[in-house]
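Can anyone check this?
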Amino acid sequence: MFRINLYIIFLVANMFFNHTVAQNRSEKLDRFLEKKMAKANIVGLQAAFISNGKLKWVGSFGKSDYKKHKSVNDSTLFMIASCSKPVTAFGLMKLYDEGRIDLDDDINDHLPFEIVNPNYPSQPITFRMLLAHTSSFHDDTPLLVSLYTFENGGDSPISLEDFIKGYFLPQGKYYDPKKNFSDVKPGTDRDYSNAGYALIGYLIQQISGKNFNTYMQEEIFRPLGMRNSYWFLKNIPHDNISLPHEFVEGKSKDSMYKGLKPYGFPDYPDGQLRTNVSDYAQIIELMVNKGKVDGKVFLSKKTTDEFLTVQFPEVSEWQAIAWNYNEFDNWLYYLLMPRLPSHTGVDPGVATVTSFNRKTGNGVIIFANTLTHNFKGHKALYVDMVKRLLKEAKKQQEINTSKKAFVQTFSSN
């Protein structure tokens, strides 16, 4: 009886101590992130870390609308730019997991019309090439930017299908054989392609028989509990949406940030997802837990292994499916940081980053509503914040391990 009472007293004291320590750690982390936000001139930010395969901490800071003084909260939706690409790839990999495609299939076997690189018309282009940016499809960036709805805001009036036909077919409105296609053979060079990921979205439509947006909602978001993730502004049932902001050099404090209208573009599967860090954490959890969600298999381990495997090592030694082990493309960065599967997102008024370690089960997610504009800002966001959050995830893991060891030791005695 004495032993049981002693155990209870110790357990309560330990819980109180751990709660106090955790609260102090959280407050220090908050202050650290707020300091780095100020250095980077970021208006609003959400951050999270995953520890041992589970979302353990979420923080929300700053303003979602600088002019109206609206605060970011844990439910605020952020546009995440190219951090959308792993999610789009996830949709295709689900079809692969179900045996509906092979990664080395010619994409034309699944399209109602033929898409080829006009420089290599007889060379098949595969899903694997699209997913790993070796398809030889090239971005005509000025054209793509011209299709953003900056002036009026809102979703693009151009459908995904119309964009795909316009960009890839010879008779298309946006077709340019020199600007839209590389002059190297498909599968032999890495050329990061937004248009290629838009095509992945269209292929998902053709294979699944559902609109891309509908497919992602029904087959990915709802089963994973991602109830706050949307491709289109028109589908968001509330106004808790962060505006993109631009920093205006030399302006007074009241006018140093310009809020942009929430915008869209027709190639939306490559970067238009609006979500929050809690929802996005479901994708990271699934990656580090080898395809399992709450202990249940959502994707096979084989598929998640393939997801994180470098696809064309002789072409790009770091490029897996969507994720890249050299995302920051800077040797100095990797002197300071571990080389992990990562993705970043950049668009006007948007800066995002996610990185994770499958071996430890730890990861970080950061969504900002302001594009960093100098070295100090880049370092604050992509090095300092990411490094600190990974450190906090590791600390949390060590605390959990110590707790488990204590309980096991006490129980055995």
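Reply from J.R.: I decoded it. The mean pLDDT is 92.
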